[in-house]
């Protein structure tokens, strides 16, 4: 507690010298008494050293206005004692080393973010109806071949493999050679694309449609040539329905499939059964119905895609077909990562911006310039929670505690080398290397000691994403959260506040930023020692 006044009495053979010393030290006349050899000086508040005068020192209490004026409104914190004081301000993340702001997202893999290598099988209908065109100069078969070759060209030439199977009403057994329609380049990499493309170009268009044959053959290839280390994908394209005849008398001038008496229920069930077998081998099937929708068994294609975890698509012309192939390629060439969203705290005092400082070499940390000020991404895993703001303010200065939420530019995520497990799945953690637009964020609330934060403590956290806020205090010895009959009460130093930002969540993530704000000196850290220092230079013991 701060004394209102102090009386100092010194009894000594040298009482007169003590009286002179005390008068000179405090510029207040000391009284001396010969009768008991005592010098006495009485000090009022204005006579006390500045460090023990709360009206003039830098001790701050953000929860009380007894000796300082405190204003906490929204984003602003202001303290004032009515004197020309300066105060040290610091702000840093409360969740030191555990900040995890971001989301699980899919990105197209590249040299920075790797994915599983792909094994892709194109299962293409070669029935007679594929020889027809849809009002242009190319046949459906030629258009399917062109889309397939474009797909292969965009695969990773050193890591991905591709093959092609064509099917009609035949049920032949094909040898696995480069010269056969069953597979090309011995399921070679995309860099061996010449042989694959030649095989695609050799796909004929004749006979009926037995989709189950194509799926069955593709399953055989995956079983013989692929393994669990690779992402297995089947792209199934047809323009008709399952049938088992060759109606060569059908009029090839129209766009209908060969009329062979309608779909075969047995063939359909076999197709679905083979699709289930594929799914059991972790093969995903994407199905495409090409041409007149009335001539396609969309229900079957949807079932095949659904049971294997794929998607069904419809295309009326070559442009739509190319778009679908490109969409499938992008989908399977992507990988899921934990993307650390770029963010920065933005603290302004009396109009002066104080950007976060990151220790060490920060050249690798993404930054953005806003109104001439450079802001670093404080959520970069390479500098996880090590940033801080430190500056000085004058009494009465308004301190604004905002944040900036940034958009990472397309293709600007790079792997950090960190792996995290979330819900039994391992993800690479990626950092943003280039920042786009920004959005200003105000704090959800500023808390001081004694505030009830039960709502924050009991919110439905996913503990594998971000820790409960109570755990953030475990690194501190003298602040924390007290459980008072089920209510969680914040226990901070008098000069501290917790600034809480509730950030946008991802589909599987819960995001928040929590800063520990401090201004001036805490009451518990203020010492009144040193009003009078006495150094003993000589001692005499008698007895």
From TrEMBL:
It comes from the Archaea. InterPro entries: Collagen-VI/PIF, VWF_A, vWFA_dom_sf. Residues 119-328 form the VWFA domain. Signal peptide: none annotated. Transmembrane segments: none annotated. This is von Willebrand factor, type A. The lineage of its organism: Archaea, Methanobacteriati, Methanobacteriota, Stenosarchaea group, Halobacteria.
């Amino acid at each position: 507690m701060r004394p209102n006044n102090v009386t100092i009495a010194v009894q000594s053979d040298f009482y007169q010298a003590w009286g002179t010393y005390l008068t000179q030290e405090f510029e207040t006349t000391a009284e001396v008494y010969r009768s008991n050899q005592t010098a006495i000086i009485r000090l009022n508040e204005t006579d006390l050293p500045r460090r023990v005068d709360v009206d003039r020192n830098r001790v701050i209490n953000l929860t009380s206005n007894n000796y300082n004026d405190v204003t906490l409104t929204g984003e602003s914190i202001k303290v004032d004692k009515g004197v020309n004081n300066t105060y040290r301000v610091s702000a840093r993340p409360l969740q030191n080393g555990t900040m995890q702001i971001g989301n699980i997202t899919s990105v197209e893999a590249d040299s920075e973010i790797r994915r599983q290598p792909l094994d892709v099988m194109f299962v293409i209908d070669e029935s007679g109806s594929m020889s027809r065109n849809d009002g242009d100069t190319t046949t459906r078969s030629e258009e399917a071949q062109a889309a397939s070759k474009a797909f292969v060209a965009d695969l990773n030439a050193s890591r991905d493999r591709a093959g092609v199977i064509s099917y009609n009403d035949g049920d032949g057994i094909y040898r696995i050679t480069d010269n056969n329609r069953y597979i090309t380049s011995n399921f070679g990499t995309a860099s061996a694309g010449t042989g694959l493309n030649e095989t695609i170009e050799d796909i004929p268009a004749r006979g009926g449609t037995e989709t189950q044959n194509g799926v069955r053959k593709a399953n055989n290839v995956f079983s013989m040539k692929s393994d669990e280390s690779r992402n297995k994908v089947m792209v199934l394209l047809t323009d008709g329905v399952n049938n088992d005849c060759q109606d060569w008398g059908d009029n090839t001038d129209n766009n209908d499939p060969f009329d062979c008496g309608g779909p075969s229920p047995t063939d359909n069930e076999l197709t679905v059964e083979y699709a289930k077998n594929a799914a059991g081998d972790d093969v995903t099937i994407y199905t495409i119905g090409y041409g007149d929708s009335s001539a396609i068994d969309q229900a079957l294609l949807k079932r095949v895609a659904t049971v294997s975890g794929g998607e069904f698509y419809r295309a009326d012309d070559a442009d739509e077909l190319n778009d679908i192939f490109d969409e499938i390629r992008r989908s399977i060439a992507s990988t899921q990562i934990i993307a650390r969203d770029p963010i920065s705290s933005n603290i302004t005092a009396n109009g002066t911006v104080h950007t976060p400082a990151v220790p060490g070499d920060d050249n690798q940390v993404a930054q953005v310039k806003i109104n001439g000020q450079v802001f670093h991404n404080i959520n970069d895993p390479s500098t996880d929670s090590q940033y801080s703001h430190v500056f000085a303010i004058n009494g009465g200065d308004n301190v604004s505690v905002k944040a900036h939420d940034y958009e990472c530019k397309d293709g600007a995520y790079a792997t950090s080398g960190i792996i995290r497990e979330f819900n039994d799945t391992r993800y690479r953690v990626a950092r943003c290397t280039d920042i786009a637009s920004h959005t200003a964020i105000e704090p959800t609330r500023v808390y001081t000691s004694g505030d009830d934060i039960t709502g924050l403590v009991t919110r439905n956290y996913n503990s594998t994403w971000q820790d409960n806020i109570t755990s953030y205090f475990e690194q501190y010895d003298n602040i924390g959260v007290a459980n008072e009959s089920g209510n969680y009460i914040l226990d901070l130093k008098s000069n501290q506040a917790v600034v809480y930002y509730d950030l946008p969540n991802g589909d599987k993530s819960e995001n928040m930023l929590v800063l520990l704000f401090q201004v001036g000196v805490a009451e518990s850290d203020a010492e009144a020692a040193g009003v009078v220092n006495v150094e003993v230079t000589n001692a005499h013991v008698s007895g």
